[in-house]
Amino acid sequence: MADTALKQVNYRIRYATYCAVAAISLSPAACGDKPAAKVAADATVAADATPTDAVDASSTAADGGDAGGAEAGAVGSAAKQAQIMAIKETAQFALPLKEPVQIVRTEGDIGNIYAKNRRDLSVVAGFVLARHRYFQMELTRRLGLGEISALLGDGALSQDVEARLNGSNFTAGAVQDRLTPELLEVYDGFAEGINAYIDLVVAGKMPEPSEIKLAKGILGGTAATLMKKWDRRSVAGASAAIVYNLGYETDDIGRTNAIANLPAKYKDKPLAQLRLAGALADIEYLVKPIKPVSSAAGSGLDLNGKQVTKTEVGKIPPGKDVAYWLKWLQERAPKPLPTALAQRQKIRDAQWQLRSGHDRVQGFGSNSWAVAGTGATGSAGLLAGDGHLPLSVPALFYQVGLDTAVFGGGPTHQKGLMIPGLPLMAVGTNGGVAWSQTQLVGDITDWYRDQVVLDKDGKPVATRFSEGGKLVDKPLKVVEETIEVANVPLLGSKGRTEKWLRYVTWDGRWLTDFEGPSVQPTKYTAKYGETVAAVAGGFVVPQDENADGIVEGIAFDFTGLDKPNIVAAVDGFGHSADVWQLRDHTRKLLAYSQNIVAADSKGNVLYTGYQAVPCRKHLPRDADGTWKKGADPKQLIDGTLYTGFTIPTLADGTIDESQSADPTKCVVPFDSYPQSVNPPQGFVVTGNNDPGNLSTDNNLLNDPYYIGGPWANGYRADSIAEALKPMVAAKNADVTKMAQVQGHIQSRLGGDFGPIFVKAIADIKALVGKSGLTADQQRAVDLYQAITPTLRDDAVARIQAWVAAGTPALSGVVTFYHKVAAGEVEHAIATSIFNAWMSAAVGLTVDDEGLDLWEPWGADARTRAMWFMWQGRGPNNPGKMASWNSATQESAFFDILSTEPIERADELVVMALKQGLDALAAKNAFNSPDPTKWIWGLRHGVHFDSILAKFLGSNEQYAALTETFSITPSLLPLADKYPPNDPRAGLTQFPRGGDAFAVDAAGGIFSSGYGSGPVFRLAIALTPTKTTGVNVVPGGQSGLTDSPFFADQVKEWLANGAWPLRYEVDDVVAGAVGREVCK
Hints:
The chain is α+β, with helices and mostly antiparallel strands. The protein has 32 helices and 35 strands. The strands form 7 sheets. It has a 12-stranded mixed beta sheet with strand order 1-35-2-3-8-9-10-11-21-22-24-4. Strands 12, 13, 14, 15, 16, 17, 20 and 23 form an 8-stranded mixed beta sheet that branches. Strands 5, 6, 25, 31, 32, 33 and 34 form a 7-stranded antiparallel beta sheet that branches. Strand 21 and strand 22 (605-608) form a beta hairpin.
């Protein structure tokens, strides 16, 4: 019971953080609550209503038939009011409003909210979102405030402590303090709408959310005790959770320790010096992308092709030699962290990435691009966006329309996607501009290793800082945090109030951990001279555990601690008239870390990744830009030598650049940040790639400013760019074509590595029967001949044909959403073979080293390292690699670390082929040695797992229940009926094409499923007279399984289809299925 309970609590914590992933990167996860999809019988939109049924011509505002109380002729558009009021009324709700509000429901139960004022608009938005997503919203705000324990018990205590120690709770207060009078009304109104929903549930007038029904059995209590009222701080808490998922990161700690342990790792290993130098030069500091695509030309604004300072693509300076990197290790390598501290930080980092919805192995990210009117049909500005995050049920995003223009003449008329818990539009359009976002991979968090001073009771009281060449004790600021813990007998939690201290250094950095052993406060009795301290992710007894005379501490500085006002910025996006106004609103972005792409109705397009980034002038560098020892912001900074930074802001939240003379307050200038408006190519694109030719010369330190990186390999951005070029040239880009690009599933790895693998096999085949072979050649021949000849030759021939066809990564499986074309099955088999082959090759080439230096994500970094290793083979070290072995004329990493002989690259290819073919034939794969059975879609697919499956743990008694809360082929059968022995009958996921780095993100070499996928597919066209578009989410608006809106959008999503966006009133009315009245 204890283990099961712990799993349940751990998942709830993870789920809460997933709910905080932003609408971009977002860093990502779709967190679904299971709210009631229906209200009382007299307040429910009929499931079978049609757009035609919804229009009641006998009831119009002009005739005085205003059931909702709206007046025709009120400020706004009388004609549009009449259109809306003519829609059949299907429900009424009594809410705390100043004026009546209309909710027009279109297909999928998507609500289009029409209010006279913004405060009422926010009330109804809160009510509408809570009806579908209450529990998701509740956990998001608790995550941001560090109040999960008050609901789930002490199993979540360490997570709440972390929320207090990492500043999330503090940032919630800052968000609240920054709200303007208008936004205060928005936040207050949103909370009032949620509370109105809670009141109706508690009164028995609306069904309880499904999670509350389940939670009562586990947590105890009633809806009245479990559903807590919201206020503006609650909404600010949800906002803070988003801030931390956007830009806060913990990678620097693990990276420091990985580098520090390199010498010990390779001690007495073969080719040790080459491996040591190569781990740095050819992996850690290899930052150039495989495809050198940049979103802007360079640092500063690229306007209409204006020349800016940029690096030259393709002109890579010579690499530094082995001696340089060995000297670097000797002079600059940090010392390892104390063992317990290092282990705790490694676990914490992994948990943070998991809770944030970030898949560090597969990678995560998003795509967004915009086409200028010069290249589009009808001169429209075009925007496309698809965020790649974990695919859970219900979806992360919520489709909605917000309007104060029609009935109130106000400035708000928006359609797009919100994140449940936040009252603002995350991505979408207002008719003048449309915008979407992706993860930037910016560096806005600095981590430090400090020397901590303890008092006689073992309590931290100071840190040491060098002044005049001497270490001086600097007193710590101590803040008490109070955490309420729920009484949950089933989970072994006793209700209580806990008080813990957090510590802030003299210069404003927050301490999150101390050297010393981990303990459980409820089971540990402190000895004399000991104090149990709360740290991020647990509790420790601070002490000098490694007996070096120093008690180490870990502290951080984060731009999010400098009182960000991103709420005003994001609200400004939704009220901008064009891309220039939207760009100006980005001047307030602090702790955002997103690429932003926009198009406007004038045909302009914008790319910007701007956010406030410290100049870090207080951290010294060498003449070549390399950070001095202890000053590298990508590693732990020496807190005895260097202080934190401050991002100064003006009263309205705009970043203040006037204090640049102060090295700790200097920020990267807005006009020096990579940005692009209307570039000559006619479009802008971001796929988490390099924002402005900062890494294409393989150096992040020789640009005007350091802002982060490295970035993705450029595959997705390159695929998008190549698809857009012919459209723009023909001036025929449109929404339909944008959606087609989103469905791109060509295997980019197959195109690059497929020919390499085939050639390696051919070279080995040519050695068969020859005498005088070297030892490695003979090993390769033996491996080649050990593979069943017919199977081996068939596999290689299939890959050759597949490469010649352009490496289409096709499913090959007939389903209700996909018809198999002629020749598709052959390509699907080849896709299976290549991905199994590639996976084994990655394992043999780089994973055998056991390194933890993969930036920004494992899939990108591993394939980047492999690609340049292959390009660096040959005489005279053509790739200038530090790991180049003169004896083999290739990288030392082609040698398998754990074996005695020195393996060669070609040898690894044939070894990987055998491993891949064996893996495909294995029982846990296709369970057959027959390649004709190896159809990609039978192994590679997508599943939409309910959060309840993990919420309830792995107990078999819940299996049938959790199955009903997921979207699987059991719910949506792949075919009406299956013939005998049809392999589709046993599938638990939906067959899909695609593989790693496709635009339509689809897992691949490291997984037969999806690490993440498009959590929306949005495409919009803007002209001065009309806004059109399409959108779809992977699931539905509702999380309730018996709702017709639970999985209705999945069918379109699987087919790469979408629904009309319905921005214009005419389009909303045309798709209306009913009108709900709130008053």
